[in-house]
Amino acid sequence: MGGRNRTRNNREIERKFLVKWLPDNFKRSRHFIIEQGYLATEPTGRQVRLRKTNKSVSLTFKVARSSHREEREIKLSQNQFAALWPGTVGRRLRKARYEIPWQDVLIELDIYRGRHAGLLVAEVEFPNRASCRRFKPPSWFGREVTGGKRYSNVRLALE
Amino acid sequence: MGGRNRTRNNREIERKFLVKWLPDNFKRSRHFIIEQGYLATEPTGRQVRLRKTNKSVSLTFKVARSSHREEREIKLSQNQFAALWPGTVGRRLRKARYEIPWQDVLIELDIYRGRHAGLLVAEVEFPNRASCRRFKPPSWFGREVTGGKRYSNVRLALE
Fold first, then answer.
1. B chain contacts of residue A87, beta-carbon cutoff 8 Å
2. How far is Cα A94 from Cα A111, in angstroms, rounded to an integer?
3. ipTM score
4. What tens digit of pLDDT does each residue of A31-42 get?
5. A117 interfaces chain B, CB cutoff of 8 Å
6. Taking a C-beta distance cutoff of 8 angstroms, is the pair B120, B113 a contact?
7. How far apart are CA B31 and CA B109, in angstroms?
């Protein structure tokens, strides 16, 4: 996720759910297309990701183990991005992201494009553990898949 | 290596040798300290490396299989580097590099520091395959270790 909320050591607290149906009026939310690809990924969850949106291009280093993550992100210039992007051939994915306010948090609804079209996933990042525990998912959320590898972006990009 | 010579598709032709003894007057050659660390490495040879010298900081994506390599490198700003470098903790190495002209090529002699102190490795990058075949190693070169994983920088950094 975008790295807005961090605990110490750049760790994130977030939960991830499949989506049963698209919520009313979701198209009115702020949204944009995300294209991303992976330069290298380790089975233990270390990864280096390139991402392009309509606003900016970035490189992100992540260590992703269960619900705890370390994340370090830098903005790239267009030239830096163009030099590295070909290294992600065959390891890319595209999705439309909708940012939907819900209670005291922001839900990121990802609608996958391309060969994963039809897959809908929602992520919520929490400012602290208490907020994470308090969270009541909206009715359109399906099964929680936090920490599961099946719907990780790395796996979707590589398969 | 620094990426001076490339065939199509950013592939490099290079050979790597252990070093039996330090050549006469090597200290007069151009030299500098290299500090590098790995954000992520795959067993198949894909890797993302950060490198810092007295001149610049860079991020390099490599696919390294046997004697053929794909390499994509970008210069980073000091801020970009500082944001990513902590992600390489426990996966770093330091060495002094001496650039020694020999016949029509440049030998890169690496003198490792820190826990690999005592290890000496020489690399030669060739402008084309003919030059690679013609190469006669100088007397101070030892066993060729091209393509071997034992002396790869990734392995040295991780062990």
1. 61, 63, 70, 72
2. 9
3. 0.84
4. 999 999 999 999
5. no
6. no
7. 9
